[in-house]
Amino acid sequence: MLDVVVVPERSVETGTDVPGTLRFRAGGSAANVARSFAHLGGSAGFIGSVGRDGWGRRLGAVLREEGVTAHLVVSGPITGRLAAVVDRGGERSFVTERGSADALRPDDVRASWLRRAGVLHVPAYSLFHDPVAGAVARASELAHEAGALVSVDTASRAPLLAFGRAAAWSRIAGLRPDVLFANRGEAVALAGVAAPRVASRLLELAPVVVIKDGAAGCDVIWRDAAGVMAELDVAASPIAAADTTGAGDAFAAGFLFALLGGGAAALPAHPWTAATLRRAALAGHRAAADLLRRPRAELGL
After folding, report:
1. Going by DSSP bridges, is the β-strand pair 229-234/218-223 parallel, antiparallel, or unpaired?
2. Which domains are assigned to the chain?
3. Which of 124, 141, 211, 294 has its CA 20 to 30 A from that of 18?
């Protein structure tokens, strides 16, 4: 996805204009995770679709420049693009035109792309539209066959609810995820139960659930070797951030990188221990903080 990041200097006023900045950046939730994973020193690949336009070619080049193997299918005239409007507190709201991002088909996905994978990471955006949802299902099957983990990020509350809680639950469950990432609002929306029961409800979808809570840190919930629910509250150190776009994706990359043993060739044994999951959460916090602190590169054709 092409991100167009809009930062007004003051509140937007109807019928007139206000000063601010507009920047073009490489985006897309899955691509963000792949780039952050590679930045940590891991081997990362991205599977997706771009349009027959200059932005599609440029986004593919950015992935390769940042050390990501790009498995790109060219489909349709328009590469997906997103406007991120960032408020004074750094929080962002999105307006999205998905374009070719939804055009990936099941038969586009090759088994060789996943043969050496340690984890397949799927943003739920790709589950709410066809044919890309079918492509994700095939990729998940291939990942499980290869002995890889599958992780899912619920991505965004409004698209999830628009698709339908039951339908979203069914599609996520069909991937048999090992790890489920969600922010607090997404977790409540998907679980469809009162707050005290959210964690236990989401454990029906995945054996490890990570609920992100912004600057407050995250909760990690899992079932131990005896099948008993356990929970960790892993705090973060708040930092000033002018733009939080992509921080959740960087967190997922850091968490998964640590969970895989920091790029080790073989997966660590699981069920996961509390120490392993705490290390993964702290690694996620560090990766998100690193993204928020470093300059963001502007994209040009």
Report:
1. antiparallel
2. 29-78+99-293 (3.40.1190.20)
3. 294
